[in-house]
Amino acid sequence: MEVIYTIAPPTSMYDNATMTTLSLLELVRVTTAADAGTAINHARDLGHHAEQWGYQRIWVAEHHNMPGIASAATALVVAHIAGGTQSIRVGAGGIMLPNHAPYIIAEQFGTLAQLYPGRIDLGLGRAPGTDPVAIRAMRRPAHASEQFPQDILELQSYLAPASESPAILAVPATGTEVPLWILGSSMYGASLAAELGLPYAFASHFAPEMLLPALQLYRSKFRPSKQLAEPYAMAGINVIAADTDAEATRLATTQQMSFADLAGGRQRLSQPPIDDIESYWSPREKATAERMLARSVIGAPATVRQGLQSFIKETGVDELMIVSDVYDHQARLRSVELIAQAMQNDEL
Question: What residue stretch is flagged as signal peptide (predicted)?
């Protein structure tokens, strides 16, 4: 079998592979063998193991009207994971702020910060994370995304100390100063994160095209803020590890099928891996899936280490947000463990 390895060769002078932080984006996948409750408990278990393996943080994302993802009530899932862990940072990657009043998000994440001090992150996205039907069901105006910058500043004010807060208090969020992140897949998010002096996370695990120019813009335009003195960039990357390249390649077909379904307009639960992905997708679905999954490393630990080191040298990111979308929970734990080992083992 051909191992998928689509990282571009290094094009920069970055060389911080041994210092780059590893974190996880947990998709909370509902599968043909695991219902929503099981998926949420699996996310908690993954967080428990990930902190033992040295991961910095684990995030979950807000999605609506998607039968295969169980993290719609994002703050509740964050609380469940945080309650089953001791030290790893837990957060939203992210909350789609146009779907919510900033005041309510401040209350939710301020409460989480009170329950789990120093461990909560709040990543913010501008996209709705859903379709027009769900947007109407949430009673949010279609133009809500136009207020994204102002909504961030409002949210930030509710998390600030009381002396800096407006007349209304978001109890118990006041003074928690939950760290905010800007999420994005375009130049817009990079520019906004730079202007506000916030850390920036690029969604290259599904929208890789603008990764390098967005990072360059963010770094060149960054303005120091109270939260952050220097630019700090994270990038998402799909990584599936197994004991052999062939096994990892087979495990990766689960994610490939999910993206083929997305391209084909099908809503299915996560599917078990198959032997021949070519028998599943159409040429159009294949082209779309491969474009969206272009930033992927799949293989045994040595392959993973080489791929991630190349990605780090190319991008100079301070942190990797690993997406390891594996169907079986035990196989996914094994993948996440091998990824950590690969980046910690200089002998590979």
Answer: none
